[in-house]
Structures are given as structure tokens and as C-alpha cells.
Amino acid sequence: MSRSLPIPSKISQPFWDSCKAENMQIQRCEDCGVYAFYPVYICPECASRKLAWTPVSGRGAIHTFTVAAKSSFEIEGPLVVALIELEEGAMMVSNIKTSTPDTLSIGSPVRLTYEKVSDEITLPMFEPA
Amino acid sequence: MPHPGSEAVIAGLGEPPVGRLIGSNPTELHVEAAMLAIEDSGIDKHDIDGLMTSGTFLNDNIRHHMIIAEHLGLHCKTFCDTLRTGGQSYLNGVQVAKWAVESGLCKAVLLLRGDNILSGVPKGTGLKAYIDYGAHPLEFEVPFGITVPGVYAMMAQRHMHEFGTTSEQLATIAVACRKHASMNPKAFKREPITVEDVLASPMVSTPLRLLDCSPICDGGGAVLITSLERARDLKAKPVRILGTGQAQSYYHLAHLARATGARKEDKSRYGLTRSVQSVAAKEAFGRAGVKPSDIDVAQLYDSFTITVLMQFEALGFCAEGEGGSFADGGRIELGGELPVNTNGGLLSFGSSGGINHIIEAARQMRGECGDRQVPDAELSLVTNVSAVASNHSIAILGRD
Fold it and tell me: For residue A4, which residues of chain B lie inside 8 Å, CB to CB?
């Protein structure tokens, strides 16, 4: 089985475009300042409609992670699925690219990297910082 | 409070075999479960005017409830629907059925489950079928290789980090379930296991090993709910539904972990290891007028060992972070302070979805569990959990 790829929607297209450009942007609420992810129509915290696509620093930390004994698709190296807390406060599920998953721990810093998986889709990934 | 006699009770139970039921199909399992409950209760089928089913994994239909109604010959229903909250559908259904009976909308409601997710899904195609089923967030999680065990593994990893919970403590839950299943001739997995066996079983997704995960299994179940007045004229001993509660949050892990959208002052109450089940618990205990220490036996939804461990805390059986030590020392085995999953649970009895937990909880109140019966049990708690521990329902049952 190959990696199943996202199908961008109207609301998420800017996010996937920013990943393709290797300059990931997520939505920031112009009223309350909260960074939202996944892409949304209103701020989930204050219900403002004023959301602006904003570049992220690319710095984050591991909130939690798991190393799959067997990856459900073919990849190089171990499949580490992680929930990443971005410096901006938003969280996202991604992979951590490492050949030594035993050295990972919750709270450790990671930095954003990218992996082009098709002409249309580049996935945001992370590596130990 | 409903007037005396109109209180909704569980008046019939049906449980087809579980395991690898080669040649079975979901419709047949629904009908078999329904017939067993009808025979158990002795109800005239024409008196059943409410029906809830929960769809099927393969070849699902948005009007699944209508397909089953026709197979059962249930002509005119005043309430009929398909529940869509996965493994949590069944206790959700108990609450809805209770409302339907107590409001006078229905005389008797049948709640059904039946599926052949073991024998019906060709080997090696389960994960793809699960992705196609659309139960997981396709755009932002599935591309990174998320799996059901993987999600619960991430919760376990977080729980270990926050509270020092150990793999040994998780394993004691699997061991207790297997011990109970070994006393249950109907159970799918009956060979006793030890903590060492669990720790030696193959890693699935760190830190969860094979024996931390419930096996996929065919099976089904039926629960009949009617008024106490009507139930007292039927064959089976009525089981009271003293309190129910529900709470649902989100499916995406990021939203669960951040408690997205919750009031600022409430956010710290929730997280990956702190689900909204505590809200459902407060409601169920409040309605029943009892407290956690009053409960004699519990059937806790156990898709994974960590699913159970987190519930000890959310339900108030122990303080936050103490779920691991609560599981230790035989406390949750028969003969212990709080016997858990006396039929063996999903981890060892088998089946899928939460209906078998409800059936066992009710049987404990009917005093019909044989070797597994908790002596003089008066209060039985049951939970259903689904969707990454985000959907929760609870019922507290009592004897008539």
C-alpha cells in the first residue's frame, strides 16, 4: 500500500500551497491571536471570521509520538507518527524523520522540513532539532 | 422522574456467538441477536415499536435500520434509526431508548449490533477498508500513517510521560480480562496469560504490544428496553437504568489535545490523557445518586489497555494520574475491589462495539454470570468509548 495523499479542499488549499512552496502557513485569528490548525472557516476559540494565513517559525516540540512496528506504507527508515506542538501553539499530526527513534522523547524540540510526495502535494514533516 | 412503572428498564438480552464466524453476515447476526433477546424477554414481537441499529463496516447503508426492520418484520415503528457513533453507539442507544420509553413515545425499543469484521474482511485489506470507511481524518492524519492502535499508543506514551505509568501496569488490564474470559465458555480468547506474556508479545506501535490490543472479532448483541411495568409481566428479571451520561469531543488528535473551542478556564481540565468522559461520569453518577466507591462491578470499554486505564481516572475510581497503580494488585480481577470486564471484555471476550459490555453489565444485575458472578452485586457500571477516546457514554445499572 502506498501513502494515502490528502485531497485539498477550498478551505485547505492555501495550506497545501504553502507547503508546496516550502513556507508553511496556518491561520491566525486577527481578533484573539490564536493560531488554528486544521484549516477552518471561523476561529474555533472566539468565532471571529478574521483569519489570516500566516507563516510559522518551523520550531516545535513533540507532544506525543509512536513508532510503528510495521509501517502501513513503504518508507525509508522507521515510521514515527507524532503530534507536534508548534511554537505558535497550534498542534499537528506529522512524521518525525529519524533513523534513531529510540532517542526521541516527549517535549524534545523538532524543526519543520518538507517531503514532496507528488506533483501537487508536499507534506510538512519534522526532524529532531 | 417518570411516574412509577413507566421507568425504562432492560428487559431482554441477546448474544449470538463471538469469534471467527465463517459464513456469517451482518444481517443474519442482527436477526439472531434480536431473536435471542425476544425469546429471553418473552415479549410479543408486535409490541416492539422502536428500533436502533448501528450500520455495518462493509457494505453499509444509510438506511440500515430499515433493512433490519424488514428482516425482523417490525412493521410500524414510532422511533427507528441507525446510530453512528461507532463503538459508543450502543450505550448512546440505551439512553435514547430510555427517553423514548419514559416519554411515552415507544412501548419497547430494540437495540442491535451484528457484524463480521473478522471473517468478512479479507486478510491484509483491513487497514485499507478502515481508511475507505472514512472513520479517520483523511486529509491531515491518514497521510502520515496514523492507525487506530497508533492513536491509542500516542495516548499511552503521553500518559507514561505525564504520570510515570508503565507497560507492566497496562499489561495487568489485559491479564485481568483474560482471566475472566478463561471462566467464560463463550469467550474468543480463553488461554490465561501473564504480565510477562503481554510484555513478550510483538510490538504494534510503541508502547502498545499485540496483547494490549483487542482482537478483531465477529459477533453481535441485542438489548431490549421497555417500561418496568411491562417488564414485570415478561420472563426476564428487569434491570434498572439508574443513571446515564454522555459526552463527545473531537476526532482530530490536535483538537483533542488542545481542547480547541473549550472555555479558557476549562482547557486545563482536558487533554489527550484527560477526556470528556469525566463530564459524562458526573452526569451518570449524579442521576443515579451514587458515587464511584458504591459500584460493585464495571464493564469498561477496552479497545486497548490504555483505554481502560484512562477511564479509572475519568470515572473517579482513582485520582488523575493514578490509573496505573489502580490496575495493580488484583484490584480489578474477580474477588478484587472492583472487578472489571467480567466477561473478558473486548480484549478477550471479543466482539466489537460496546453492546456486549452492556449485556454483561445487565447479566451481573440479573445474577446470571455463574462462576463470574460478583456476589451480591447491586450496582453495575458500563461504558462505551469510540473515536479516539472522544465519544463517551456511561450507564449505571441496578437490580429491580
Answer: 131, 138, 142-143
